[in-house]
Amino acid sequence: MEGSPTDFGSAYRLLSGAVIPRPIAWVSTRDDGADNLAPYSFFTVASIDPPIVVFAPVGRGDDLKDTPRNAIEHGEFVVNVVTRDLVDQMNQTAATVSAGVDEFDHAGVEKAESTVVDAPRVADAHVAFECTLHDTVEMGSSTLVFGEVVHVHVADGVLTDGKLDTTKLEAVGRLAGSQYVHTTDRFELTRPP
């Protein structure tokens, strides 16, 4: 079968089902009334120099949810990497709650203060990127939020000789619908010359 993206049911289902697995940005922000924490699976690295990450929540302008709105208004946020031990708490933060509800408290997630930015981080996250807002781009029905990584927290347990060891980081990726994957089924390929 071939055709336009909507010929397959919906563009969202097609893209989110085929572009897999997707890493999850568990984004934390601070607002005047509460701390926000929500997962976004449209997330990746955008640049190495400077180090930039990007997540792409659905919504634009006044239609943005609390987390991206806070990141844009306050200019700071933290991207916490979701790992196997945190997946249930991450799922709880996907719930729709009223503005002003502290999503750390709602999901039973322990928070820690960041070092450089004024946004909390997930205390038990094995990797957390403190970010300052670099730019935003409205594209279609989404807003791409670019953050420059200004400080990083990495748990000693996922380091080998002072470097991040991907074999120790049991990250979780999003598939489609209610399906997720662990990064424990790994294999190696040697890149050809």
From TrEMBL:
This is NADH-FMN oxidoreductase RutF, flavin reductase (DIM6/NTAB) family. It holds the Pfam family Flavin_Reduct. Its cofactor is FMN. The keyword Flavoprotein applies. Residues 17-166 form the Flavin reductase like domain. It comes from the Archaea. The keyword Flavoprotein applies. Belongs to the flavoredoxin family. SMART domains: Flavin_Reduct. One of its GO terms (molecular function) is FMN binding. Keywords: Flavoprotein, FMN. InterPro entries: Flavin_Rdtase-like_dom, Split_barrel_FMN-bd. The lineage of its organism: Archaea, Methanobacteriati, Methanobacteriota, Stenosarchaea group, Halobacteria.
